Amino acid sequence: MAAKGGLLMLENFIGGKFLPCSSYLDSYDPSTGEVYCHVPNSGKEEVEAAVEAARAAFPGWSSRSPQERSQVLQRLADLLEQSLEELAQAESKDQGKTITLARTMDIPRAVQNFRFFASSILHHTSECTQMDHLGYLHYTVRAPVGIAALISPWNLPLYLLTWKIAPAIAAGNTVIAKPSELTSMTAWMMCRLMEKAGVPPGVVNIVFGTGPRVGEALVSHPEVPLISFTGSQPTAERITQLSAPHCKKLSLELGGKNPAIIFEDANLDECIPTTVRSSFANQGEICLSTSRIFVQKSIYSEFLKRFVEATRMWKVGIPSDPSADMGALISKAHLEKVRSYIKKARMEGAQILCGEGVDKLNLPPRNQAGYFMLPTVITDVKDESCCMKEEIFGPVTCVVPFDSEEEVIQRANSVKYGLAATVWSGNVGRVHRVAKKLQSGLVWTNCWLIRELNLPFGGMKRSGVGREGAKDSYEFFTEVKTITVKH
Ligand SMILES: NC(=O)c1ccc[n+]([C@@H]2O[C@H](COP(=O)([O-])OP(=O)(O)OC[C@H]3O[C@@H](n4cnc5c(N)ncnc54)[C@H](O)[C@@H]3O)[C@@H](O)[C@H]2O)c1
Ligand SMILES: N/C(=C\C=C\C=O)C(=O)O
């Protein structure tokens, strides 16, 4: 590990070794706007080295038993857990999220990802069908695919990267991971644990840098047959184009414009705090965040009053403050993009009920140049407005009224995305009916973000292609073969 001007310089992790890079990028602390470390600006050369290392490691790793691989994953989980506090501090500083969220969600989930796939890899079975009358038996076998490219975004850095690394290596693949260049720190820290966990050199390689340089070199490499990508829809389009000539296996987890549908018989005491959280947790930078709230007309005024009151109680503070509910957004460019939506809403005649431009943000002098904004509620906004159609990915949510069940389903479905929805009602029949008709890969009813890792996770329409989870990830990270035996 080198230091330039007293700042940490991260290194690529290739073939079990930390390797310096010929050029570096600045990485910013979102809470101050200051550069706080340097990240390798890798390109084709580093991708070639990683492919070579991953290729060399594949025969040994893929021929180990699932039990042996499972033990390695368990050890890595234990080591991550032992470093939980250090990793949480680093994630919070690097990403801008609150230390509380990093401690209670991001890092525990990274640990759980390794534990979960260490266990689930032990329990898969294959299919078999008999054609006894003709004298044949058919069965399937699965084998790891090879070198997997794993590309992840900046919002839940270690959480989402490990959600890919764990199933990929559990199934016997070797991997080249590329975290977002904006949040590389915890991935690099995890590399320091690989050797102790017993991960053989070359099984996990991490190459840091930007999408256009290192990401494109990786996804277009002919020896990388599968790509698991989480990020934005425009990047997914580019990856699809680049990988198409090679017929690569693709898993795409993309954005959302997630509705919350609140019926007049909803329990508002539960619905309001959960909907504030689903709108603003992690600064609204979660693909599952609520950004369109449809409220039945008879309770609209009451809901709006209580929702705005609860939003104003949501504390924006420096990420290291354990009492803060929200920290800083990821970058200056992203903050400006989020603010531009609020400006557009104003120009269209919408009302901003609280937050940006309405209330005052109080920050210590050192954090005045950080990328903070208040949670913002917009109303009197048309369904056709860009604020109701496009993914903002920040602490901004729109609240609009509706009359009937049929109407709200049609309006909720009227966007290009289909990732997650919440439905709030005390009527179990209605909850089932509405959930079934929503074009959404995930529907949480009377709750939000309760995760069961066994079941499929992913989006419909432009929110993605494929699903992740115990069975789905196993199927993605393996190739199936059908064998017929004459007897
Ligand atoms: N569905 C999900 O599970 C999920 C989870 C988290 C985030 N997201 C989505 O991610 C987006 C926010 O993340 P982001 O801004 O980091 O997304 P992004 O698409 O800009 O970047 C994601 C990753 O792709 C890389 N990348 C960028 N251009 C590339 C290229 N041309 N070739 C290869 N790789 C490239 C980036 O460096 C980064 O590592 C939002 O749309 C959000 O909804 C989806
Ligand atoms: N992939 C998952 C969450 C994605 C969140 C997006 O920001 C998960 O919980 O498995």
TrEMBL record:
<dbReference type="InterPro" id="IPR015590">
    <property type="entry name" value="Aldehyde_DH_dom"/>
</dbReference>
<dbReference type="GO" id="GO:0042574">
    <property type="term" value="P:retinal metabolic process"/>
</dbReference>
<dbReference type="GO" id="GO:0001758">
    <property type="term" value="F:retinal dehydrogenase (NAD+) activity"/>
</dbReference>
<dbReference type="Pfam" id="PF00171">
    <property type="entry name" value="Aldedh"/>
</dbReference>
<dbReference type="InterPro" id="IPR016162">
    <property type="entry name" value="Ald_DH_N"/>
</dbReference>
<dbReference type="GO" id="GO:0047102">
    <property type="term" value="F:aminomuconate-semialdehyde dehydrogenase activity"/>
</dbReference>
<keyword id="KW-0560">Oxidoreductase</keyword>
<feature type="domain" description="Aldehyde dehydrogenase">
    <location>
        <begin position="24"/>
        <end position="483"/>
    </location>
</feature>
<comment type="function">
    <text>Catalyzes the NAD-dependent oxidation of 2-aminomuconic semialdehyde of the kynurenine metabolic pathway in L-tryptophan degradation.</text>
</comment>
<dbReference type="InterPro" id="IPR016163">
    <property type="entry name" value="Ald_DH_C"/>
</dbReference>
<dbReference type="InterPro" id="IPR016161">
    <property type="entry name" value="Ald_DH/histidinol_DH"/>
</dbReference>
<dbReference type="InterPro" id="IPR029510">
    <property type="entry name" value="Ald_DH_CS_GLU"/>
</dbReference>
<keyword id="KW-0963">Cytoplasm</keyword>
<feature type="active site">
    <location>
        <position position="253"/>
    </location>
</feature>
<protein>
    <recommendedName>
        <fullName>2-aminomuconic semialdehyde dehydrogenase</fullName>
        <ecNumber>1.2.1.32</ecNumber>
    </recommendedName>
</protein>
<comment type="similarity">
    <text>Belongs to the aldehyde dehydrogenase family.</text>
</comment>
<dbReference type="GO" id="GO:0042904">
    <property type="term" value="P:9-cis-retinoic acid biosynthetic process"/>
</dbReference>
<dbReference type="GO" id="GO:0005737">
    <property type="term" value="C:cytoplasm"/>
</dbReference>
<comment type="pathway">
    <text>Amino-acid degradation; L-kynurenine degradation.</text>
</comment>
<keyword id="KW-0520">NAD</keyword>
